[in-house]
Design goal:
binds adenosine-5'-triphosphate, 25 strands, alpha/beta, binds magnesium ion
């Protein structure tokens, strides 16, 4: 019947008279206890109770007593506690559901002394429980304050109790009333506890009990707060991250970033889908992309992951450019771009034909070997053009680190894919022509051996699953056409060399250079320097003069540079107002390029004036060159000396030459004892030429004989060949380069071993041989017969020729 509401004290409560002998109606209540001075609104629904309220006349005093068992619907006297509260009914409100709302105010504690009526409601007699006046001790005072303090703490930290309760409590001075007020205000006290407090008439004892209950409640409350905050903490931690992330998203969205990131990821996904990767690679790429999309764009490794995904996405996994290869057309394009080189072009076309007929052929890699400036790189470019493919040049010169070819692992700071993958990205197709330039200059040190990485790249057996360290995914390189270039073959590691088809390009003769210049170099330089073609004329003789006297090379690079210099000088004149055409005469050349720089023919003529000097021919990575060998003699004891930083093989062939000369002294017309008290010295001057190998044997023998017979050799004559102890002349290599070097130097007579005759006929064109006399020798006597003038007339004639050459140089 009695729901407890917040009870409010009514400070002006009047104290009812002592009720001895008087009977009062008894209102049993469930689960609540009315305290003196407290106002309690009670809902009354039981018929007996309603009748009780309705029977009240002038006198509105009743006894409010709690039921021992709240479940009892029809309690009798025995079901109620003995002690209750006498109360005044202030107001009765009828509720729509027939029940009544009764405002009661407790006045004092009473003890029921006997029931006087049970029907229709109970009435009973009672006696008021007197409260002993509490003596004012500091102890009591402290207790009271403690109770008040705890109550205040509870109210402050409770979310359901009104702060007004504090104010009221502070203003109650009477300890008994304070105890009753607090007891009736606390929702957490059980009915039993409340009843106990009501029954405790001793104020001090009541305060103590209350104090205990409050302390217990405080503890519970603190515990609850602690648990609450702990739970909150753990919830907050995860929520915090979530909120922050959400906030960040919101901020990014505000800034427009979010959209960008999302769009970026969508773009990448599209690219991955379109890249034509193999299923495995695609799966990995999408996995990485998924990781990326879950990452915070501001995170440090976001851009790393993004870069990686981007690399995967943009590589030409299956995009090719090549259509059918038209061999005829390819041939025309090669001819269009390069003069001469017919044999080279033929071999290139052979190679391309095979590739065309067997596209999946695991064929060798082309390798162009030859001196600088002979067109290796530009031939590669031309092949790409002929095939309709992209071209990219990868310079291997000075490359030390394996990672430059194959990349760094992704865990490495600043990691990038290697050159192969980088170039593939650049050309955007998987079948480009890759020119691996200067493969002979590949380095090797503690950072690893790039040649082994290169081997894996080039080897047709392995390169269909080429694995770059950075990508860590197999990439099929088998469609790439690799062309290597080198100046010489020696430094190329054998395993690489094994997989190559070597195509040699030797140097050009002066006529070829002039042709190349007239057809390609001059038009190009004229155009590049912004000149009108009609403004300049290079007569053929002038081009020849530049090639002969201003360059000393097998290729045409320096020649092109000089033509460029001439064009620039003219361009300046044009800019300064020159209108008329400039014809490049020898005078103009001298004016623009300075005096003649190279005069090998005069050098030869000059140096061979003296007996004991012979001209040899040497092969060098730059083509070939002439080589002077000087012999001299002095008084001594038959000693022998050789200088000029030469190798062992050359020293030995020198010994052979000397032995032959000594053993044939008589037939050479020498005094048998001539060498007895003479020391000989052979010197091979000029650096830059590798001075080793046997091919200078005949030259040294000739120099010695020239020295000992005091006969200068014929001018503009050069020779090469190995010599045996018995005087046979053996074949040597590099004939073509040596021959062309001799021709470039202005030599007119060349002595070669008889056994290279077929080489000469195969390798050299009639144009190249034109103007030269080749003498083949099988014995050293044959060499000497050509090299040394025999009769007086011969000597005079040689002198005349020499003078003529020297005069021309003046
Ligand atoms: N036969 C030729 N016809 C037309 N131009 C040529 C010919 N040979 C060389 N050239 C030109 O000479 C220049 C140098 O050639 P390129 O750069 O190909 O030399 P290279 O052999 O690669 O030299 P290096 O070994 O120094 O790299 C280029 O401009 C090239 O076009
Ligand atoms: Mg090159």
């Amino acid at each position: 019947m009695a729901n407890e509401f917040v009870s409010v004290i009514k400070p002006t409560a009047t104290k009812a008279s002592n009720g001895e002998g008087h009977s009062y109606p008894v209102l049993p209540v469930r689960e609540t206890v009315l305290f003196p001075h407290a106002v309690l609104p009670l809902t009354v629904g039981r018929t007996s109770s309603i009748q009780l309220i309705q029977s009240l006349g002038e006198e509105k005093t009743i006894l409010v007593v709690a039921q021992k068992d709240a479940r009892q619907d029809q309690p009798d006297g025995g079901d109620l506690y003995d002690i209750g509260t006498r109360a005044t009914v202030h107001k009765v409100v009828k509720m729509p559901n027939q029940s009544l709302f009764v405002f009661t105010e407790g006045t004092e504690r009473v003890k029921i002394t006997g029931f006087t009526q049970t029907e229709p409601f109970m009435t009973a007699q009672c006696e008021v429980i007197e409260e002993n006046d509490t003596e004012e001790s500091p102890e009591a005072e402290a207790l009271q304050r403690n109770v008040l303090g705890q109550f205040q703490t509870i109210v402050t930290s409770s979310s359901t109790l009104s702060d007004d309760l504090q104010t009221i409590a502070i203003n109650i001075e009477d300890p008994s009333r304070l105890a009753d007020f607090i007891a009736s205000s606390l929702p957490f006290l059980s009915t039993t506890d409340k009843q106990d407090l009501l029954e405790t008439s001793d104020v001090k004892a009541r305060l103590e009990k209350l104090n205990n209950s409050l302390a217990k409640e405080l503890e519970v409350q603190q515990l609850r707060n602690k648990i609450q905050s702990e739970v909150q903490d753990s919830v907050q931690q995860s929520q915090r991250d979530y909120y922050l992330r959400e906030q960040m998203k919101a901020i990014q969205k505000e800034l427009g970033d979010q959209d960008d990131t999302q769009k970026d990821i969508a773009d990448l996904k599209e690219k991955i889908e379109a890249a034509g990767m193999t299923e495995d690679v695609k799966k990995d790429a999408l996995k990485e992309l998924g990781r990326l999309s879950r990452m915070n764009p501001a995170a440090a490794d976001y851009s790393l992951t993004r870069n990686y995904v981007e690399w995967l996405a943009v590589l030409p996994w299956s995009k090719g450019s090549a259509g059918e290869v038209d061999i005829k057309k390819a041939g025309e394009i090669l001819d269009e771009d390069h003069y001469g080189l017919n044999k080279v072009k033929d071999r290139i076309l052979d190679y391309l034909s095979v590739r065309r007929l067997k596209p999946d052929m695991k064929g060798p890699i082309l390798c162009f070997v030859g001196p600088p400036g002979v067109g290796k790189t530009s031939l590669g470019r031309s092949i790409a053009r002929a095939l309709g493919r992209k071209f990219s040049r990868i310079s291997l010169g000075g490359m030390h680190d394996e990672a430059e070819i194959r990349g760094h692992r992704r865990t490495y700071i600043g990691a990038l894919p290697g050159q192969i993958i980088q170039h593939l990205k650049r050309v955007e197709v998987n079948d480009p022509v890759f020119m691996l330039d200067e493969i002979d200059k590949l380095g090797r040190d503690f950072r690893g051996d790039p040649s082994s990485a290169l081997l894996e790249t080039l080897d047709p057996e392995q390169n269909n699953t080429f694995r770059d360290n950075y990508l860590d995914q197999p990439f099929d390189l088998s469609k790439v056409l690799f062309i290597c270039t080198a100046n010489q073959l020696d430094p190329i590691p054998a395993p690489l060399l094994d997989r190559m088809e070597i195509i040699e390009l030797t140097g050009y003769t002066e006529e070829e250079k002039v042709n190349i210049a007239e057809r390609y170099l001059i038009p190009r330089q004229v155009k590049e320097n912004g000149l009108e073609p009609g403004m300049i004329e290079f007569p053929t003789a002038s081009v020849g003069m530049i090639a002969r006297h201003y360059t000393r090379e097998a290729g045409v690079r320096r020649l092109e540079q000089l033509i460029g210099t001439v064009c620039r000088k003219l361009a300046r004149k044009v800019a300064e107002g020159r209108k008329e055409k400039l014809v490049i005469t020898p005078e103009v050349i001298r004016e623009m390029l300075g005096g003649i720089k190279v005069r090998v023919d005069t050098e030869i003529a000059e140096r061979t004036k003296r007996a004991g000097v012979a001209v040899g021919l040497a092969w060098t990575p730059a083509g070939g060159d002439v080589l002077f060998i000087e012999a001299n003699k002095m008084k001594g004891k038959g000693g022998f000396n050789i200088t000029g930083q030469i190798g062992d093989v050359m020293k030995e062939s020198m010994q052979a030459a000397l032995t032959w000369v000594r053993s044939n002294a008589a037939s050479l017309g020498l005094d048998e004892d001539v060498l007895k008290d003479t020391d000989l010295h052979i010197h091979v001057p000029a650096g830059g030429i590798p001075k080793d190998g046997p091919s200078a044997g005949v030259t040294m023998a000739t120099a010695l004989v020239s020295l000992l017979t005091n006969t200068p050799i014929r001018p503009l004559l050069a020779m090469t060949g190995e010599i045996t102890l018995s005087g046979n002349v053996l074949p040597v290599g590099g004939i073509k380069e040596k021959f062309l070097a001799a021709k470039r130097a202005g030599v007119r007579d060349v002595i070669l071993p008889i056994d290279v005759k077929t080489n000469v006929e195969e390798d050299l064109t009639a144009d190249q041989i034109d103007g030269m006399t080749i003498h083949y020798a099988s014995r050293i006597e044959d060499v000497l017969a050509v090299a040394l003038p025999k009769t007086e007339a011969d000597v005079v004639e040689a002198e005349e020729v020499r003078e003529e050459i020297l005069a021309a140089a003046e």
